[in-house]
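Please decode residue identities from the backbone states below.
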């Protein structure tokens, strides 16, 4: 998903697209991997002096709720990234820098066979570790 698609989705859902909201979306579109609310606020403080964590978290929650951002938890803190809408895949996530790498393998075929009598509504599969760059530090 890109910023333009995200703005269209917000409009379809009846939400306004302010300058701050567009800047948040652009930040995540340009981010390489998952980012924290703290990283986002540090980025936005250059433009919006005194921006509050309330504003940041409210928008992050909204974007996650409408399907613009994905969320994961690393080291006890929520991390966000722009949702990938192109095709079904999973991620390797670096625990140090938050960069991600797509994983094309999905374990759900085996899981569906094991749970043939169950209705599976959704799933999430992530692998955590250190990317090559963080291993050399």
């Amino acid at each position: 998903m890109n910023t333009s698609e995200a703005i269209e989705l917000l409009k379809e859902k009846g939400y306004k697209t302010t300058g701050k909201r567009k800047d948040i979306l652009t930040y995540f579109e340009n981010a390489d991997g998952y980012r924290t609310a703290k990283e986002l606020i540090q980025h936005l403080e250059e433009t919006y002096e005194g921006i509050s964590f309330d504003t940041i978290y409210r928008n992050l929650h909204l974007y996650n709720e409408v399907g613009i951002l994905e969320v994961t938890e690393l080291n006890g803190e929520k991390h966000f990234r722009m949702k990938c809408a192109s095709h079904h895949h999973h991620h390797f996530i670096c625990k140090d820098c938050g960069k991600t790498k797509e994983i094309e393998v999905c374990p759900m075929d085996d899981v569906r066979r094991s749970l043939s009598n169950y209705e599976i509504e959704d799933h999430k599969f992530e692998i955590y570790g250190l990317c090559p760059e963080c291993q050399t530090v």
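Observation: The radius of gyration is 17 Å.
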